[in-house]
Design a protein that fits this description.
Mean pLDDT: 85
Shape: rod-shaped
Distance between the termini: 117 Å
Low-confidence stretches: 1-8, 834-840
Bound molecules: ligand C2E, calcium ion
Length: about 850
């Protein structure tokens, strides 16, 4: 008996089968209303009805089914008890006996749907009633005798078997379609098996016509024929299995593409194991994302990671396994009673590779049988090596187009994808490329080690990835350089995306107890109509990124203006190198005064560069250049040399001053810095406490062992340490307490607005309090007028410097200023703009 789909809802197929069931039951009902509904043709001994019932049960139990062209053909010897029933039972009795036994056998398997049970019941009843109708029709025509009875039962058994097969095909076709194809393929087989069964049956009952007990002799030939058939069927099946396996290996042997392979495999598996659905799961392997394909009603479907996760619980199974797929998607090994879904693992030399899963046995008895599972395992073993090859191939392709570290695209793939995108017509939105570059990433690598550097890059890439859509093209170009290609409806959205990426980089990355903050610079360039490949677009994004970096602007969009500046930058770098070589940089000095006594206590050394053609170049323009190119160490060394030599002279002239020299982060990473400072001090004969080193907050953002070591060494040397630009960086109180600094310099941006912005006043006041609590000297820079000076003095600030007191001056001018000042600092301060007015 072929199975019928188990749709529970009232779909069209379901309604068709319900109608068919009603029709069959209606025909069967006629058996009860005919004349002699309860009368048998021949008198029956008492045991005969019992024997018939037992026979029906046995033939159902030992039905044998095999596959033939995807269809399950099942043999039963039900013709034997049917023929006996035709002779020894009345039609009504026979219908009841056959139906009850049949239904009981169907119900043996749990979970048989109601529709299927009722259809099968109606079919059993119909077959029996119809057989009786044919039989009595024949006898009515040719008259009743032993030979005619034999002919009549043979004919009716055959016709009924064939009609029953037709009904089953109709029902299956209601769900699966293909009625004609199915009929054409199977009816000849049904006719052949039906006739054979009927002939065997007639041979069995014939002796009973002599004496009813002789029917027992017929058991022997039935069992014999049955055994031969089954043996033959099994052999033929095995033969066919081998053939199909061979065909399977051939079919999958052609493709290295993992999608093609999945496609072909699943179609073959569904065919060979007769499953409604087949699923192939490939676990994640380095470089190859895990994948799930399912083939079944509705076609082939590729799944996402969620689909993969549900199968992961089966990752460790070693052999074929029954599984249960719960409604909520959970999957787990099932009890052996549930045989509707079977899974076999796929492995290769490196361990589990994936799973092959079939569910929903089509045709034949419900659930998969051990034979099916054997076949599935055979398929799996055929598939394994090919699948391993496809995975290796996928991994190779992945490696060729992806960055090892982050798993994002690499440069070659990015160029190709973006070029493709540029030549396909836009959907009307704005297309843009972004270059994203981490600031000072080299320092992270140098000081914390590559291992930490890698973690930072990975985390940064992952954060960016979370802000993107699947259509965006994101790549790492190597080092700390990333590129992004996006299409959005509005340029503002792109800008906002840039800002969000920037924001991500400002958020500390926690690694091994360290909080690493690595800022980034982003350049954005919009694609133009004439951009034919990625190169031109990327070049503009690159220029915008350089500008962003140079100006500490974070995120910068490309414009013609900034393009013109870039070649300039390279020339400037060349000029700077020369200027350093030829000692053309000079140092100016800005005095620091005590806000209470107005006495000059020190000077800050500020580097100056007079360019041959450009005139004065502001330090903001060339210090970043020097930092990026590594020239900064040489620069610092020259400034230190000049500043200490000058200080020596001032000391000789009787001015007891300190000199402050600015250090850049790279200086703090320089292992030789401390030695060089010590040497300069020694050469000039100055005491260490005459020297103050200014370090910016932001240079301490990565709290690295090397920077810390340098700072400790400087402290031990005895030089003063000043925390510059305080308030603009990321200082946390905890490290302020740990750093051996002696001075805080409030950034001039707060000081300039002190009298205008109450917020700034709060910041300045609390910085002063904080500094004093930590026993630090507090310096305000950028004092431009008297009222600010006055306010700072009232707020308790210790020292001050600014244009209002004096601009940075060349050494000789400062010497003269100092001389004038010696006698009249307080007068000078009082003469500052603003003070005059207030005190007048
Ligand atoms: P900085 O360390 O914060 O230096 C103070 C800056 O404020 C100097 O600018 C100074 O001229 C300016 N300044 C002083 N008083 C006032 C004022 O009243 N109002 C305003 N608006 N500005 C005032 P400068 O010399 O242009 O230097 C800029 C930056 O370049 C410095 O900021 C420092 O970060 C860097 N720099 C200068 N010389 C060196 C150096 O020798 N080595 C290193 N590594 N960096 C240096
Ligand atoms: Ca400074
Ligand atoms: Ca400063």
């Amino acid at each position: 008996m072929a199975s019928v789909g188990d749709g529970a809802q009232l779909t069209r197929p379901t309604l068709t089968v319900v109608a068919l069931t009603a029709l069959l039951a209606g025909v069967a009902g006629t058996a009860f209303v005919r004349d002699g509904a309860w009368d048998a043709v021949m008198p029956s001994p008492w045991w005969m009805p019992v024997a018939i019932v037992v026979c029906f049960a046995l033939t159902e139990r030992f039905s044998f089914s095999f596959e033939y062209r995807r269809e399950a053909i099942s043999f039963t010897m039900s013709e034997v008890p049917m023929v006996l029933a035709l002779v020894y039972l009345g039609p009504a009795t026979a219908v009841i006996a056959r139906t009850v036994v049949g239904v009981a056998m169907v119900l043996r398997s749990r979970r048989t749907p109601l529709l299927k049970v009722s259809f099968n019941a109606a079919l059993f009843a119909f077959e029996t009633a119809f057989a009786f109708a044919v039989c009595s029709w024949v006898i009515d025509r040719v008259g009743m005798s032993d030979p005619t009875l034999l002919v009549a039962v043979a004919a009716s058994a055959t016709i009924t078997t064939v009609l029953g097969a037709v009904a089953v095909h109709l029902a299956i076709a209601a769900f699966e379609g293909g009625l004609l194809r199915r009929m054409a393929a199977e009816l000849p087989i049904s006719i052949a098996t039906g006739t054979l069964g009927a002939l065997v049956a007639v041979g069995c009952v014939a002796p009973a016509f002599i004496r009813a007990e002789f029917v027992l002799f017929s058991a022997l030939p039935v069992v014999a024929v049955w055994t031969v058939l089954v043996r033959h069927g099994r052999l033929a099946q095995r033969h066919r299995d081998l053939e199909s396996m061979h065909g399977f290996a051939g079919a999958i042997g052609r493709s290295l593409d993992i999608d093609d392979l999945a496609d072909v495999t699943l179609a073959q598996v569904r065919f060979l194991v007769r499953s409604e659905r087949a699923t192939l799961i490939v676990y994640e392997r380095s470089g190859v994302a895990g994948l799930v394909w399912t083939d079944g009603p509705g076609g082939l479907r590729a799944g996402g990671t969620d689909d993969l996760e549900r199968w992961t619980p089966l990752r460790s199974i070693a052999g074929a396994q029954w599984v249960t797929v719960h409604d909520d998607g959970r999957v787990e090994p099932a009890a052996h009673a549930e045989t509707d879904t079977a899974a076999v693992p796929l492995c290769d030399a490196n361990g589990p590779l994936g799973l092959l899963v079939v569910s929903g046995r089509l045709g034949g008895p419900p659930g998969f049988e051990p034979d099916d599972v054997d076949r599935l395992s055979m398929i799996a073993s055929q598939l394994e090596s090919q699948l391993a090859n496809a995975v290796a191939h996928a991994r190779m392709e992945f490696a060729a187009s992806h960055d090892d570290l982050t798993g994002e695209w690499n440069r070659a793939a990015f160029d190709r994808l973006v070029t493709d995108a540029l030549v396909t017509p836009s959907s009307g939105g704005v297309r843009a490329a972004m270059m994203i570059d981490l600031d000072k990433f080299k320092e992270v690598n140098d000081t914390l080690g590559h291992h930490i550097g890698d973690v930072v890059l990975k985390e940064f890439a992952a954060r960016i990835r979370r802000l993107l859509t699947p259509e965006d093209v994101f790549a790492r170009f190597g080092g700390d350089e990333f590129a992004l290609y996006v299409e959005r409806t509005d340029p503002l959205e792109i800008r906002r995306l840039g800002e969000r990426i920037l924001g991500e980089s400002y958020t500390a990355i926690g690694i091994e107890g360290l909080d690493v903050v690595v800022t980034s610079s982003i350049g954005i360039a919009a694609a133009r109509g004439d951009d034919r490949d990625a190169a031109a677009l990327l070049r503009r994004a690159d220029i915008a990124m350089y500008t962003a970096k140079q100006q500490h602007a974070g995120c910068e969009s490309y414009s013609e203006g900034i393009d013109r500046r870039t070649p300039e930058r390279l020339t400037l770098l060349g000029d700077l190198r020369q200027a350093l070589d030829r000692g053309l940089l000079v140092v100016h000095y800005q005095p620091k005064v005590d806000l209470v006594s107005s006495a000059v206590v020190g000077v800050e050394a500020l580097v100056r560069w007079q360019h041959e053609t450009r005139g004065w170049v502001p330090p903001e323009d060339f210090i970043p250049l020097a930092e990026e190119s590594g020239l900064i160490r040489m620069l610092t060394d020259q400034v230190l040399g000049s500043a200490l030599a000058e200080l020596r002279r001032w000391h000789d002239d009787g001015f007891d001053l300190t000199v402050a020299v600015n250090l850049s982060t790279l200086d703090l990473l320089d292992e030789l810095l401390v030695d060089r400072i010590a040497r300069h001090l020694e050469m000039t004969g100055l005491r260490p406490e005459n020297l103050v080193l200014e370090i910016t907050e932001s240079s301490l953002m990565v709290e690295t062992p090397r920077v810390m070591a340098t700072i400790q060494q400087l402290d031990r040397l005895g030089v003063g340490l000043s925390l510059d630009d305080f308030g603009t960086g990321f200082s946390s109180l905890s490290y302020l307490r740990r750093l051996p600094v002696t001075e805080l310099k409030i950034d001039r941006s707060f000081v300039g607005n002190l009298l205008l912005d109450p917020q700034d006043e709060v910041i300045v006041k609390s910085t002063i309090d904080l500094g004093h609590n930590l026993n630090l000297r507090v310096v305000a820079e950028g004092i431009e007028n008297g009222p600010i000076f006055e306010r700072l003095r009232l707020l308790g600030c210790d020292l001050g410097q600014g244009y209002g007191i004096s601009r940075p001056l060349p050494a000789d001018l400062l010497s003269r200023w100092l001389v004038g000042c010696e006698f009249a600092t307080s007068e000078r301060v009082r003469a500052m703009p603003g003070i005059v007015e207030t005190s007048a």
